[in-house]
Amino acid sequence: MDLGGTFDALSDATRRGVVDLLRKAPRRAGDLADALGLSRPAMSKHLKVLRTTGLIEPALDDADARAKIYRLRPEPFAQLRGWLEDVERLWTLELAAFKTHAEKTRGRRT
User: Is the torsion defined by CA of 27, 32, 33, 37 positive or negative?
Assistant: First the structure.
């Protein structure tokens, strides 16, 4: 997975809004546009970015075979979570090492 593409896609507030809505339930493009106050063409552009990066996928609506329902794909978010956990582990170790160093040198002047 391309984390850069994921970050680029999620750097836009509207696309983050789409992700937030899709976290609750799959939705049609028109419903997403209405919820976010966007035109259909504007929503289509945002959905294309999210599809291209693999964050969402369309499925056919059981009630209307002509309509697509969009839903989140879990894999890219699991990869993003893994990357964030790695960064968090690094900073936890760095801060622990800094704390140890600060406690050893407390009261000593350099």
Answer: positive
What would the DSSP string read from start to end of 18-41?
HHHHHHH--EEHHHHHHHHT--HH
The pLDDT tens digits of the residues spanning 60-103 come to 777 777 778 999 999 998 888 888 888 888 787 778 778 877 88
Asked if 39 and 33 count as a contact pair (C-beta separation under 8 A), the reply is yes
Q: Produce one character per residue of 81-94: b if its CB has 16 or more CB atoms within 10 Å, e if not.
A: eeeeeeeeeeeeee
- Tokens representing 23 are 């976290």
Residue 86 phi, psi dihedral angles, 5° rounding = -60, -45
pTM of the model: 0.74
Residue position matching structure tokens 């893994």: 82
**Run of H or E residues at 51:** helix 40-52
Total residue count of the chain as it appears in this document: 110
Question: HSE-up of 105 (CA within 13 Å, CB side)?
Answer: 8
Q: How far apart are CA 61 and CA 58, in angstroms?
A: 9
